[in-house]
From TrEMBL:
<keyword id="KW-1015">Disulfide bond</keyword>
<keyword id="KW-0677">Repeat</keyword>
<feature type="domain" description="Laminin G">
    <location>
        <begin position="1263"/>
        <end position="1452"/>
    </location>
</feature>
<feature type="domain" description="Cadherin">
    <location>
        <begin position="262"/>
        <end position="373"/>
    </location>
</feature>
<keyword id="KW-0472">Membrane</keyword>
<dbReference type="GO" id="GO:0005509">
    <property type="term" value="F:calcium ion binding"/>
</dbReference>
<feature type="disulfide bond">
    <location>
        <begin position="1250"/>
        <end position="1259"/>
    </location>
</feature>
<dbReference type="InterPro" id="IPR001881">
    <property type="entry name" value="EGF-like_Ca-bd_dom"/>
</dbReference>
<dbReference type="InterPro" id="IPR000742">
    <property type="entry name" value="EGF"/>
</dbReference>
<feature type="domain" description="Cadherin">
    <location>
        <begin position="596"/>
        <end position="715"/>
    </location>
</feature>
<keyword id="KW-0106">Calcium</keyword>
<feature type="domain" description="Laminin G">
    <location>
        <begin position="1009"/>
        <end position="1221"/>
    </location>
</feature>
<keyword id="KW-0245">EGF-like domain</keyword>
<feature type="disulfide bond">
    <location>
        <begin position="984"/>
        <end position="993"/>
    </location>
</feature>
<dbReference type="GO" id="GO:0007163">
    <property type="term" value="P:establishment or maintenance of cell polarity"/>
</dbReference>
<feature type="domain" description="Cadherin">
    <location>
        <begin position="492"/>
        <end position="596"/>
    </location>
</feature>
<dbReference type="GO" id="GO:0007156">
    <property type="term" value="P:homophilic cell adhesion via plasma membrane adhesion molecules"/>
</dbReference>
Amino acid sequence: MQQLYQKTRNFSLPSGITLHWRNRCQNTVDNITSGTSLTKLVGSDPVEFKQPEYEVTVPENTRADHLLRLSARVRATGETVKYRISQGNEDNLFHLDPASGILSLLQPLDYELQQQHELVVEALVGAARSVARVAVKVDDQNDHAPVFLRALHETQITEEDNRHLPKVILKQVTAVDRDAGRFGRLIYTISGDGIFTNGSRPCFSLDAASGTVLLLRPLDRDPPHGQAQWRLRVTATDGELNAHTDIRVNLKDANDNPPFFPSRITTATVSEDTPIGSLVTRVEATDYDDPEEGDNAKVTFSLEKNAIDESSGRPIFAIDSELGVITTALCCLDREKTQRYVIQVVATDGGGLKGTGTVVVDVDDVNDVPPRFSRPEWTLDVSESLDPDNVLATLTVVDQDVTNDFAYRVVPDSGRGWQMFQVEGVSGSLPGGNLKSVKPLDFENPDHRQGFNFKVQVTDVGEAGWGQKKHIAETWVRLKLMDKNDNDPMFSKEIIHLTLPEDTPRGSLLASFTAFDPDAAGESQIRYHVDPNSDPGHQFDVDRTGTVRLVGGLDREITDAHSLLLWAVDDGAPPRTTTSTLTINVTDVNDNPPFLSDPREVHVTENSQAQLVAQVKLGDPDDWQQGHGPPFTISLDPRAPPHITNSVRVTLDRRGDDGRGVGVVWTRMALDREEHPTLLVPLVVGDAGWPSLTATVTLTLHVADVNDNPMAPAAKTVTVHTMQRKGAAVPLGRVYVQDPDNWNTGAKTFAWRDPQAGFFLNTFTGHLSMAPSTPDGQYELRFIVSDSDQGQRNIEANVTVLVKRLSPNDVRNAMPLTLTSHSQSLVRPHSEDGVSVLGRLVGAMQAWAGGSGAAVQVISLQPLEGKTPSTRVWLSAVGIANFEYLLLYHKNKLSATLGIGMQDVGVVSCHEDAATSLDKVAEERCVGGCWVGLADHFSVVDANSSAVVGPQVPPHLKSAPASPNTCLNGGRCLNTASGSRCICPHGTLGSHCKVLSRYFEGDRDGEDASTELASEGSWAWVPPIPPCSEVHISVEVLSMVGTAALLYSGPEQSVEQGPHIHDVLLLELHQGQPMLLLDLGSGPITLTLNTSLADNMWHRIDLIWKDELVEMIVDLCLGSHWDKLPAPSPTAHNHSSTTVFPDVHMCRSTAKLPQNDHILNTSGVLQLGGLVHPLSPIIVGRDPVLPHPPHFRGCIKNLRINGKLIDLGNGVLSKASTPGCPAADCLINNLYCGLHGRCQGSPGSLHCECQPGWDGPGCASPTTPTTFFPNSYVKLALSFSPLAYTSSITFRFRTLRRRGELIVLSSQHGRDSWSIQMVDGCLCAVLHLHPQPPTSICLSQAALTDGHWHSLAATRYGSATFLMVDDEDGDLYNASLLLEGQQLLEVDKQEGIRVGGSPHFQDTGMFKIDSDYFDGCIDDLRISGHSIPLPPAVNSTTWGQASTFKGVEQGCFAPSSCTNVSCRPPLICVDTWRSYHCGCGEGRVLGRSRVVCEDEDECAWQPCLNGGSCFNTHPGYVCTCLVGFRGQHCQLPDVSQTSLKLPVGILVTSIVWSIFFILLVCAFLLHQHHRRTALRKCMVDAKDTSEDCKGQVSPLCSHTPNLLELQLLKPSRASNHPTWARNLNIADVDVLRVDAGVMGLRSNMGTTDSTSLTENHLRKYSHEDEGPPLGGISSWITL
């Protein structure tokens, strides 16, 4: 449509109104919204509307407003248009302005009444008019909210009714909405009780279409979770407006709740004198059912379990059935008889439902029992150092009443010293009175020293009760005052001044100091020491009397004054010290001759003319002011060799050096270096003192070389040691030609004569090298050398190279030896015999170590830097035991043989920066605390005509790797599924087969001192004491002599005396008394004890130094023989025993260590039983040490250093000493302890003790373990009282749990205790002795929660505790020797022993198990050596009984851990007691193909000892033993083969039984003769025998012998195994076999195939992996 825009008038539509403009031509509608301008259109008609139809939309409820402007176009100009509504406005809702054409709304429109209005409008211009239609559409608005017809809906259902679910409980809960459009569509939701928002299934649902409410789940009416009325709310919403209605669902009660008591346990209290019918308490019960619904909630009460009076059989309590009131039914309860009653009350409702509750009635006390002291007499040892406020003792009182008001008093005039003490009541649960002193106690007071004796009384009715005798008890107190080291010693002189000349002789007495100690009644022993800080040069010494002597000599030139501090130390514990001072002024003596000051060395070129060489100046350290110095004199020594006097002259210039005098040195002629390369010019010098001191000093004159000599042909030998690994070339040194001149390689050239592959030559320097992979052998190399300065060409030089490959064994057996010599001197052949020092060294060691069978060789040489030239030689000794000790022993002899000094043996210094990269170091081992190995770099020592080349051996630090399982003393290593273990011979112990005892023969008169080990008497060497700041050494000795050396570590005789005193440890016996000499570098400390150990009994000695204190303890202050503990009395009682604490002065000695030195630095071995060489003079000078202490005769065992047991077996270098201790060997002394017994005791008191897990006669019966389940415990009562000072606990245990209490020993009321616990996987022993805090020791590095059996031994000596497991070695041992404070533990033998946990009775009357040990087993419990029962298998023994136990079971079984476990084939699940692993099973290993499991041949490990033969079985193996041995591995001596002295009666009995047995055998042989045919027939078919479910062979024939079957055997030869020993024979029968376990086996046993022996022939029996084979080859009887 063509439109012409002639005139535009704009107007805006009202807000919310939309104008629809229809375009007829295009049949479209243009929307014009508010704010849009309309343009008047002008056409061809006189008057014409823009559009014939208009549409406008108006929201309902819109107020009066303009809707739109109508416009018409007029063709004639100047005409006026009028507008009007002609139709559709009957309700007068609209208005059209005639002039403007604006259509307006006069009244709001309602969508719900009419959705659209049609208007017809006209435009008039004169008579012309135009008509248009306007459609006004009403837009719906949400002006009506939904409405429920009812505000509340209510219904009733029965509770817990689950029938017909889901079911309708309300119909058509709907709402109405007057909106007609989209706002009239409603959505319903339900909320309230039972409608959950957490995803749980709701109890109700609502049908949105019909408004029906459904019940989905049964409802509960009763508390605590139910409710009588369930409230819901239904919400209807049209999207914007909401409406609500409430629903009430009322529940009808059902009797579904039994009555219950709000408090499960009700406590009440009643007095013990209450009459009958008295009120005890009232109980109340609650029933959640509806009380209005019949009798559902009506409750009646009754007593289901009442307390019954034992004497009358009548009930003690009664209850009112309606009110629940409990009253007493009997008169006068007795609290002392029964303190608490527990009764059960039942509440029943009308429907028969019941609920139970517990009433605990505590009986209140009435003070009707008199008190009594727990002891009729108290004997106390009290230290004088306690203040008056300290408690001396708690006098415990026994009174069964609890309403006691205790009052105490000391009875006046009752005894000596009563007025000095008072008794105060103890506040707490334990009744008693604290005894205190009202005045200070002083042992130095003679009246106090006599002790105190007085009477103490107690009353239980307060201070007013002293007149009531019935309520009074008394006891005697006998108090002995113990001296405390509370006074310092006092010197008689505080300071002494001396002036001494410096030449004062050594040993001179300088001064005497006397000190007095008021302690110990003046009997205290005073030790005197020199403060090491005041005497750094160790020049002074003080003896036991306080006499100070000069031992090191004075030297004014070093120190002109000394201020010496003297210590006086008493013998208290801890010792107290006082100090005095000795000042010494040192005056000068002309004791130093002049010395060569400058120069000391000069150089002169050879062939030069005579010339001035030097002007020599002198010096003198003496005091020049006293004339002890210049002017000096100097001259050439007239005794100088001729070549010196002919070459040098010396004159004195007196005016030189400011008049002090100068020596002028000249050469007389030209010097020849090849004749004398160095001239040592002796000069005689003197000072001006009176008398004058002269000396001869040396001026060194070096002659510088000039190449003036020709070369000559020469030969050289190079010895090379390599590992033949890939790497850089091996240097061999330089090609050698004989040339007197110093080598001038710049003028020389080198060339091959016959080049050889694998060797390389540097033609400029002459250095030779070879390939590292060069094979062993001898190589002849030929070279030519030319010298351009001399004009020489092609001089022959031959080199012989000897290549030797080092094996790993050579490196593992390497040992360093440090020699004080230049390296070239060791390699250079001697001019006389052509043998070098190294050659003589190797030859001597081979001769001393065993001659031609020894394999000693030099691996490498390492030159060392220092003032003194020295070389470290690495020697290898394969197959030589104790090679290091042999070197040490022959040190002096070897030094004399070689003609050079030996500095160290087996000593290296390691530093981090000294190590080669670890990936280039191979074959490492530990030497002297450092890790050493062969590096890729080589050390070359070239001595011209000979050279030695070897790999460098760099020492370095690193973490120690896990050591292999080393089997000592002939033990065999056996590989098992659980790892490697040792098969140990008889007499060895532990996992490494250590020998723990050794016998020493003592001094042997008349012995030839020239023998190989040329020392008279017995001795043994063991590894040295580690250099640690804390050291604990323990040793047990059985001495047959009174004076002898026990332990020694220190310098040897060859050490020269000097100002430095070497560290030393010497433990001796002096007339039976132990004496320790210890010097850690700051002066000696001597400890002695006045107790004799020379009684042929075992005694233990502990040496400890740590924290500035050194102490020596004998027998752990046990006060008895170490191996014979005092036995507890079965009739003793805890509270009547009066254990006396041992006298620590007799068993313990201590001393204070200097502050600076706490480490024993002795690199040598620890010598036992005697000294190889006499003591160094340095040590002999220390009183009271003997020059050569006698050798020890007796036994030493259990030598332990820092927890590690030292092996004393065959690997120990010794003389006149053997492993074991015959005097304490049960078998030697005709006492056999059986397979599972061990020998204990001293000579004369030997006895057998069963190993853990074994009991009965001969220790042949295995004990029965007990399994502990959760919440389990065992309470034990003993028939004896363990000693208060010492006690022991031993048992076996097995667990995977990391926490739990295994056993507790406690005193009455648990005040003091000693327990064994598992704490975070560590086994700990916790000791608590009041008032000290608890102390504990743990095995923190031992893995004990592995499900295997472990044997534990814990011992206590006072406050010292020991904890040991299994081998009792290394990480399996820990000890604490703190003997301070409280030492006694009075074990309550009735209530103080608990196993597996501590039951605790709570206030609620229920038991709780603290520290519960469960899912584990305990076996063979022993306390103080006595077997204690473990229920349920054993409930009582002679020494105790189980009083209470819970949750325990006999045996130690566990459910299979392999259930529902599958392993990857070919592996199977192997059950390992509450755990499992995948493996091949016992005796089987994974084959090389890794796809099948194969039987492992354990015989390859040679597990059979003492010549036994091994036979492999499937699985396992069996050993057959030679005559005289038995056991699973032939490790035990056969007692039947041992000649024992038996009583006549036993011999007669044995003979009779032997005759009877022979007759029986003959009868049986006759019986066999008649059955031989049938037997042979059966044996032919033996190959087809089958195995039953137990793996036993079932015989195919029906023949069953009546008694035994005897079969003839020939000695079987197994591959790679020795034949059986031939026994005594009868009628050519070698072996007569008796086999009762297998009948009808093959009779033809002559085959050599060991596999023909069936499994039953080789069957073995073991209990917990122990025990000899039974019924197998080792049980055959030999005749």
